[in-house]
Amino acid sequence: MTDDDDLTKRLLAAGRTADRTLSPGAREATVAELLAGLAAPDPDEPADLYGDGVVARLERRVAELLGMEDAAFFPSGTMAQQIALRCWAGRTGNPVVALHPMSHPELWEGGALSLVSGLRTVHPTTDPRQPTAEEVADLAEPFGTLMLELPLRDAGFLLPSWEELEALVGAARERDAVVHFDGARLWESTVHFGRPLEEIAGLADSVYVSFYKSLGGLSGAALAGSSSLVAEARVWRHRYGGQVFRQFPQALSALAGLDGELPRLPSYVAQARMVAGALAEALADGPVPWFRINPETPHTHQFQVWLPYGADRLTEAGVRLAEETGAVLFRRWSPAPVPGVSVTELTVTAPGLTWTREEVHEAARAFTARL
């Protein structure tokens, strides 16, 4: 067993037995716990076949929430988004997609946009922030689709302001381009924008949303848009191997997330802002020479913390804190683009709502003491 394997085991054990945590770790759930969350409202309802029944009910619910004509369930967000961008390329006659280089298709999909779908990308900016309307307007070549990741996860879960978002969409329209939102985490953006979901989604021609990133579902995603776009996407879904025989477990967990987690997301955002502020206070008074909370006031219920230490050292300190005090503050750290600096992501969900400012201070001080 490697040192990393041992650390992973310790992380899982500490997370499962912790007295306090900001959010459960994805690897900590057991099969029994996940199955317990799949109780059907009507246990006599027939199981779906290739996406009818409960899956179709989920699709109608998503379309209604986003104010779109229709929505289609996909086994993964990667597939949903690949197909959306491919459809738009065919409809606009332009295979070029303008998007941020830190967006999901560029970082986490193995070059599939070009290798699988024959698309090409251009970048309005390379800075770790949302692009501006001016940068979209000034792109040197035509593009068929502007894709905006809302929020931009790898830059710190960053959102533009509502006025900036309207301007970005307007700039794309001026370039005769369509607009697609990568809304994997769009559900929790309503607090920052001060707008309901349907108004936010209504700015775009199509929107992809995830069922597990914020809603706690097993897996799966949906693509929403016009009836004609979604009908075309369903054809491509079959071609891509996404016409799965049974999908009711994912659909049931997604519906449970829409019922249970979606209404609570604004409270998670508010608590994340408290936690971020309390962390900044504790770190500023502690022994660390430098830190960064990114963004300083979180746009969603997730944000980054940067510290000038090696990732293994920071992860070990977090594991020891959990093992010795029962409080999970940080989990895994990763090397940042800056040498000698590491970064981690913090998420606040239901378990984190019980934390007080003083408890965050205490956990942060105990963490830095273990460095």
TrEMBL record:
Its cofactor is pyridoxal 5'-phosphate. It comes from the Bacteria. InterPro entries: ArAA_b-elim_lyase/Thr_aldolase, PyrdxlP-dep_Trfase, PyrdxlP-dep_Trfase_major, PyrdxlP-dep_Trfase_small. The keyword Protein biosynthesis does not apply. Keywords: Pyridoxal phosphate. The keyword Chloroplast does not apply. Pfam families: Beta_elim_lyase. Residues 51-280 form the Aromatic amino acid beta-eliminating lyase/threonine aldolase domain. Belongs to the threonine aldolase family. This is Threonine aldolase. It comes from Streptomyces flavotricini.
